[in-house]
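The records we work with from here on pair a chain with its fold. Taken together, the tokens spell out the fold as the letters spell out the chain. The record below shows the convention in full.
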Amino acid sequence: MKVTPQQAEKLLKGNYTFSLWSFSMLLTRLKSVYAKDPTSTTVQNVTKELNTFIEKFSKVMAADYAIIAKL
């Protein structure tokens, strides 16, 4: 699964609860980065970082992946 820039932006603007603590922490940090610089370049960088994380931890992110896929 690859997160699209549109999904990434929804994650950054929304208030979702995820079961994987490390993903929640990553999202909190990325929201802070986005709040300081809400440009399309930031969204692209966030999308890349989210995809890297999801690819690495895909086996333990099944429940969280279902939430993201609905965005």
Observations:
- The CA atoms of residues 22 and 71 lie 20 Å apart.
- The longest helix spans residues 40-56.
